[in-house]
Amino acid sequence: MSAARARLGVLVSGSGSNLQALLDACAQADYPAEVACVVSNVPTAFALERARKARVPAVVLEHKAFSSRAEFEKALGEELRKAGVEWVCLAGFMRLLGADFLAGFPGRVLNIHPSLLPAFSGLHAQRQALERGVKIAGCTVHFVDAGMDTGAIIAQAAVPVLPEDDEASLSARILLEEHKLYPLAVRLAVTGKVTMQGARTRVDAPATLGELSLRSPGAPR
Ligand code: GRF
Q1: Cβ–ligand 1 contact at 20 (below 6 Å)
Q2: Is-above-0.85 flag for pTM?
Q3: Distance of CA 181 to CAs 24, 153, 166, 217, Å?
Q4: Ligand 1 atom closest to the CA of 16, numbered from 1
Q5: Would residue 95 count as lying in a domain?
Q6: Nearest CA residue ID for atom 12, ligand 1
C-alpha cells in the first residue's frame, strides 16, 4: 500500500492557475499530496470553479465579513483543520497571515511569488521588475513567515526579460514556470527533503539541489 498523502489546504483569491497546477500534480498516482480543501476570501474567484470541477471541497471566507484580521484567521484555521489540512499553500492569496495563524501550521505554509525574491516583494512584482530594467526575472516558492514575501526560499525559476516585454507578456512567461515550480516545491516540502530552518531552508539530499533552481528553455546561460 502507498504511503499516506499529505493533505493540502490551498488558499486563493483569483484565477487559481497555480491551484490548477497543484490539482493536476495531485491527480498523478505517485504525487505525495492531495488537495483536501480550497478556501477563497473572494466569492467570485475563478479558482472556486477549478476546485469544484476537481471535486475538491471549496469554501468562501470573506475577510470583510469578520470584525478583525485575528477573527478571520481564526475561522480560516478552523476551516482548514476541519478538513484535516496539514500543509497550507497560498496560491494568489491576497492577504498577509499573522503569527498566530502560522503557529498553527509551523513550517508548513508555502507561498509562490512572481519574482526572484528577495527582489520585488509585494504587489505588481512583474511591473517592478520591468521598471527596474532587470534582464532576468522569475518566480520563488518560499515558506511563509509573518512578513511580506520574506520567508525562507525553497526553490526558484528564472526567465529572460525580453526587450519587447510588457507586464502581461512577462507575467505569462513567469506563470508558465510557476506552474512547474509550485508542484515541485510542494513535493520536496511534504516529503521532508526541504525544511524551514529560521530564515533559510535545509536541503537534506545534495541530489535535490539541482531541482531547486530551474531555468526556462529561453533563459540566459
Ligand atoms: C501568481 O503570479 C502568483 O505568483 C501570485 O499571484 C498570482 C496568482 O495567479 N502570488 P493564479 O491565481 O494562481 O493564476
Answers
A1: no
A2: yes
A3: 13, 12, 23, 14
A4: 12
A5: yes
A6: 16
Number of domains within the chain:
1
Helix axes 17-26, 167-190, angle to 10 degrees: 40
Q: Residue 198: is its pLDDT beyond 90? A: no
Domain with residue 60: its CATH number is 3.40.50.170
What secondary structure, in 3-state letters, does 30-80 show?
CCCEEEEEEEECCCCCHHHHHHHHCCCCEEECCHHHCCCHHHHHHHHHHHH
Name the percent of the chain in helix, strand, coil, to the closest 5: 35, 25, 40
Report residue 75's pLDDT band, with 50, 70 and 90 as the boundaries.
very high
- Is residue 141 predicted with pLDDT exceeding 50? yes
- Euclidean distance between CA atoms 33 and 31, whole angstroms: 6
User: Ligand 1 centroid to 92 CA: how many Å?
Assistant: 4
Ligand 1 atom 10 nearest Cα = 92
